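Feature request, filed as a ticket because there's no other form

It would be nice if the structure record came with a short human-readable summary line next to the tokens. Right now we just get the raw output. Example of a typical job, pasted below so the devs can see what we mean:
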Amino acid sequence: MQKQSIGSVVNPNTKLVNVTNLENLQVEFSIPENILSKTGGMSKIKEAQILITIEGDLIPIEGFFSAAETVIDQETNGVLVRVMIPGISQLDKSVSPGQFASVNIDVGKKSGILVVPNSAVQNVQGANFVFKIVDGTAVQMPVKVGIQDESRSEILEGLAQDDFVIASGQYKITDGQPVVEEK
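Raw output as currently delivered:
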């Protein structure tokens, strides 16, 4: 789109054209501080496999960590990260500057972790707890939660591998109340 007419007088700071290089695409996004700390920090992000799915496309493209801000943005409470997709023009992808994309960062897998359904974790005034069943009684146990996804929460402290927790109906239960275990 033409911004200036031919023969117009412009000052040195006037933007005349946008120059776009689609050979090396950059994707910028913010990683929330709480997610960054749970994944092992920026060093893990730098080493992670990064897959970008461009809006309207089904097949992800591998990207490579390029740069990151060194401070947390006070407005977004996140760290701005830039990922490069080299050689995008050779991948037969239709890409436009400003297009949206989703980013998947695989920082690896943990083994031997304890997870419970998200529905089992309650939060009251910033403190997380679950109801654990002990000898037919609901016992409120404070827990430290790690990484969460859409259905599960990692429990870092407060439960053991063989503990049973109440995953539904907790709002009707009080600490010390007798319960019947369903299997």
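Something like this underneath would help us a lot:
The chain has a mean pLDDT of 83.
The chain has two domains: 24-106, 114-172.
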